[in-house]
Amino acid sequence: MAVVEREKLLEVKNLKKHFNVGKNAVLKAVDNVSFDIYKGETLGLVGESGCGKSTTGRTIIRLYEATGGNVTFEGKDVHGKKSRKDLKSFNRRMQMIFQDPYASLNPRMTIKDIIAEGIDIHGLAKNDKERMERVYELLETVGLNRAHASRYPHEFSGGQRQRIGIARALAVDPDFIIADEPISALDVSIQAQVVNLMMKLQKERGLTYLFIAHDLSMVKHISDRVGVMYLGNIVELAESDELYEEPLHPYTQALLSAIPVPDPEVERSRERIILEGDLPSPISPPSGCRFRTRCPHAMDVCASKEPKWLEAREGHWVACHLYDNELNTENKQQ
Amino acid sequence: MKNILELNNVNVSFHTFAGEVKAVRGVNLHLEKGESLAIVGESGSGKSVTSKSIMRLLPEKTSEIKEGEILFEGRDLTKLSNREMEKIRGSEISMIFQDPMTSLNPTMTVGKQIMEGLRKHQNLSKNEAKERAINLLKLVGIPNPELRINEYPHQFSGGMRQRVVIAIALACNPKVLIADEPTTALDVTIQAQILDLMRDLQQKTGTAIILITHDLGVVANLSQRVAVMYGGTIVETGTTDEVFYNPKHPYTWGLLSSMPKLNSADKELMAIPGTPPNLLNPPKGCPFAARCPYAMQVCVDNMPDVTDVTSTHKTACWLLDERAPQVEPPEAALVGGAR
User: Fold this and answer.
1) Is the ipTM of this complex over 0.85?
2) What ranges in B140-247 are assigned the alpha helix state H?
3) Which of A297, A280, A257, A272 lies closest to B200, judged by CA?
4) Domain holding A31: CATH number?
5) How many domains does chain A have?
6) Which segments of the protein form a coiled coil according to its record (chain A) (predicted)?
7) Whole-model pTM?
């Protein structure tokens, strides 16, 4: 991806989100996550359930208060004290699309009221006529039509509801959209429709996406860069082609080799890296590298030392002792 | 007899307040001994209803097998009494459900749940059944089976629970195993473990598997034959190679091309426009006609006949009629591209 002028839109630094789960136990859902998102790009975030990808998304948009770390949007701090006015202006710039199109639309509201809610709150329409014009325009943008405006959510299929969710997010003209598993509740043929729509809108409006999903092939398709999460940490981050062609972290390698490919011949001949065991509990994660209990390459140092976040190649970041040159030369000297 | 299970012209309807929903319309299928057959389709295509009608697990009050026969080793399952069906269910034909969180009884130890079927169908003593249960847990790869047999489902993780469900299903050495989306609720790395286990177990036990899924990747991994369902009918069936490398039905083309390929360059995905038909009022002709880019007038008016492409590969599409125009599948539907 030739991003010539890479202007940072969002900066996440050492973001932490811990939940108290009783008896002094703390669930570290997100622990020291840092990444940047550049203007106009799509950053994919993948990982298995419980790895903290959704919590990361929700903390960025301040649906959760962060336990620590900063989120900076266009140079301004997102968290911390804010006046109502500041918060409102910030909310206009950042929007979210949710996973479950059945649960994320209020069943008692008509589609026009759902979509226009943001327009009303931010006073973006002078009168009723203008408000409806905008709603119609948005419906058409996402591939629905005017007649749908006065209907209720239950009258729509999953794919159509997700389009309504997208129209609602677009209503306030945001720059940045967090899409939290926007397609995982949809059928394969409908998934492609929604992904195509999102890519089209990005091109037309210059949107920036944070695309959270567990479907690695779809994430590769839509993202410019992809981050892989495991137990609350980002373990690898690279441009999507690079990540899929040359994954460095053992977890990414296993994750990629586990995806079943719709090609019988490939499936027959493929060597899989099958990880032993299950995800450890995030309440008491393993010491050192959190992946070491399932890692086929685990060494002694992995148990004692947390791996550094380092740039193994240009633009390709990984947190793994295997790529820590300092450590490796140290070992050779010994 | 080669076919262990045969479905002939099966029709299943649900009676709802809105009217009769024709969920399965004229399905013909057969399953050979020891093979694995996948049924793929989107939600609402009738794949789960088909499998539940084999097990006779559909609600009796609201649903009805309207027509057709389901032959298991020559016996018509639709005509059996409930008592006779109970003898087959769980011992001759068993089933794995999608969600391992809800298909186990939370108040019973895992061992007891495995032993339940063994005691009922095979008249084993308590000790024999326990020994068998421990062996089964070992077979499905659960460490320390002697201890874990006394634990409850909540003490197991999702992947481990699915292993327990598989152990229960295999307890009585069934001849047919129906797996309804066995890996959909699991994470990718756990899914790989379970698929590996299922393939391994099939080779060991020789059980015939019907795999119900929407994931073509899982199909390519596990199955020898595929049936593609759409709108309550089977639109294409053949060996896995035939359906993936030489698909003939436009819906199969659509399915194959709407999945992003890991090795493809950034291109727009080929989406299938529109939504599946409403089976309250199913279309008179081909169910896919409304979304099919190649639809002709005849498709809307008449249900297509099943055409034999090869002796194993059958497609229900008017494009295969000799009077129809020649249509090439879109490039994106060609799996493996260069090959």
Assistant:
1) no
2) 145-148, 158-170, 188-205, 216-222, 240-245
3) A272
4) 3.40.50.300
5) 1
6) none
7) 0.85
Q: What angle do CA B329, B331, B336 make, to 5 degrees?
A: 110
Residue of B188, B213, B255, B291 to mutate, testing the A interface (most A Cβ within 10 Å of its Cβ): B188
Domain enclosing residue B169, as ranges? 3-223
Classify residue A140: in a domain, yes or no: no
CATH number at residue B132: 3.40.50.300
Nearest CA of chain A to the CA of B258: how many Å? 6
State whether B190 and B261 are in the same domain. no
Q: Which residue of A has its CA nearest to B161?
A: A278
User: Could you tell me if residue B302 is inside a domain?
Assistant: yes
- Measured at the CA of B222, the angle between CA A294 and CA B138, to 5 degrees, comes to 50
Beta strands in chain A (DSSP E): 8-20, 26-38, 42-46, 68-73, 76-77, 94-97, 176-180, 208-213, 225-230, 233-239, 310-313, 316-318
- For residues B192 and B328, membership in a common domain is answered with no
Q: Nearest-CA residue of chain B relative to A220?
A: B262
Residue of A nearest to B218 (CA): A260
The reply to whether B210 and B159 lie within a common domain is yes
Tokens describing residue B18: 């809105």
Residue A85 sits in which domain range? 8-108+152-331
